[in-house]
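Aim 2 progress update. The chain analyzed this quarter is reproduced below.
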Amino acid sequence: MPSDTKKFFENLSGAGKCIAVLTSGGDAQGMNAAVRAVVRMGIYVGAKVYFIHEGYQGMVDGGDNIKEATWESVSSMLQVGGTVIGSARCKEFRTHEGRLKAAHNLVQRSITNLCVIGGDGSLTGANLFREEWSGLLTELLQQGLIDEEAVQKNSTLHIVGMVGSIDNDFCGTDMTIGTDSALHRIIEVVDAITTTAQSHQRTFVLEVMGRHCGYLAMVSALACGADWVFIPEMPPEDGWEDSMCQKLSENRADKKRLNIIIVAEGAIDCHNKAVTPDYIKDLVVRRLGFDTRVTILGHVQRGGTPSAFDRILASRMGVEAVLALLEASANTPACVVSLVGNQAVRLPLMECVQMVSVCAAETEDIVFLSITAALRHPQSSFNVAVLNVGAPAAGMNAAVRSAVRVGIAEGHKMFAVSDGFEGFYKGQIKEIKWGDVGGWTGQGGSLLGTKRTLPGKHLEKIAEQIRIHNINALLVIGGFEALESLLQLYEARADYEDFCIPICMLPATISNNVPGTDLSIGADTSLNAIVETCDRIKQSASGTKRRVFIIETMGGYCGYLATVGGLAAGADTVYIYEEAFDIRDLQANVEHLTQKMKTSIQRGLVLRNENCNENFTTDFIYQLYSEEGRGVFDCRKNILGHMQQGGAPSPFDRNFGTKVAAKAMQWITRTLKDSYKGGKVTAHLKRSLSRAAVVRHLEFPRGAGFLCFKASNTSNITSEAVRDEQLIDFKSKLQLEEYNQQTAM
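Predicted structure tokens:
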């Protein structure tokens, strides 16, 4: 942990303070991770932390519903869906008498700090409780239930909220706890349905949750490549039945064997009439005669294990909530911890509750679902090539699909390059059309093929292929090798005029080691693979007891996967390249695990980045732990390997790849128009090389309680051109030659 961060936490003190945490309203995956973070952060700073079971009902009833929490009591909660402390809708708390009982129960335990995890209704109730607090204490004093000293000691109630809702329907935060996990459940079902639908050439109408907010429907439609989507925020105009049936009919004519229609449960038409799955089914059967089925997902979306994203999000929010309570004064208004862009921030609770939720940020993405988008743009004379470079990463295919279809919609002719720059100089280039990328969104790996070959040794042949195919712009999707490729092409512009074209890179690597972006395409899928494996390993250890697992993750010299995977899986320690460690640190960790085996949590989990230390290898650490823990615990080791690169992309990576590729194509279109002069494209050196990167680049130190690991509001991503003098300085900072030497070892 960096010294400034460590000093910050050491200066925090919660001594003498009591914090209570409760979950209220509908449950959501990730709530347990938030509860765990509040408890452990509270205990870490010296505060007493209490569970309030069964939400506000437990607060009103008191007794055993309010129990002090311990460090061990929140063990093994990360991977559990729902909320283990229970949630209930309490009518009694809505009455003044109910809130009076709740206040009495809190005062008896000196609880003046309340952390509420729930929706807008739960948070509104908490704020009302806070506003009435002084009056409630006065009533309790008058009734003789508490004394004057208790009134003085508990004079102020501090409230901090966290939003747990799978609908993502709360204003002020880009993502709510549980949304990403719900998307996982939806996409799992859609992927399974797709196989049976293709077998029988069926149309499936799926209803997802979202009574007032169409986020789940919209994003899942993008993530699975649905034909049509209905959301409450965008009621279809009159005649939508004709448009939809025409679209479905055209897709079948193009030899597509299935149709997917996503409907939010609150979908309505322009006359405020409900658009139901059964109505859509009857319409398709009546007009087109297609074999059509309806699937209503229901509460499946609320269940299951939380995703890696939800675990990290909830943990970050829980830590920030405790910090907010520690720093609150008598005049501090109730706040809600939100995710804005890339940061966990505190916003005034009631301002967020009172805001009207609008889905404007997502509605632009409807273009991906409509084949008619290509017909609304005039044809251009520009040819754009897209290729993958480096190792495969889940989500690459979604990015290629998005780039191809948006490029065609912009009027460009799109070309696909097979096998990266190796295929480029060999002439493996062909035109790719709208229908060629159908069904690519859910495919893992790289369907175009990808190689680590850099262009530096083949510049002459690559320039020749650019001339042969009249390529006017390049979109390169890949990791660190892709970044270095762009720099090589940039430096070659002085010798090859053919490279003076707009070139844009999308970061796609599971290692997440591309400078300038918080997250790369593929990292989320890899994290979920790591976390799922760790969950199973921990479950096996629960039966054997007294066992420590050493798990090696990928990532090269970047510790992102190990660090964030360790946080999401509840690891005891993580070893990464960025944070040096020695034999004393290893010994201290062994001693920690030895002491841990004396508690009720008799297992250990250690994650090691593959290149964290050339001497302290996975085998060395395994042997050291085995020897030093002899008689106390035994060890097992697991090298996860390339399973971290495989599998279907997560909903986040599908959506992320789709969005950043669209932004990249928009940048390419603008730059092409600006640089087209005299019948040819001659891009200015200072404004024609770009990375479609996410807002800010941050370091990821091991042991941090809250990590800024993604910018969820990707609709605000801009592809900002990098100036030539910045690129030269950027390359020296990256020390690419040193990196290549390390990689080759």
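Residues 523-645 form a domain with the Rossmann fold fold (CATH 3.40.50.460). The chain is about 40% helix and 15% strand. These observations will guide the mutagenesis experiments scheduled for the next reporting period.
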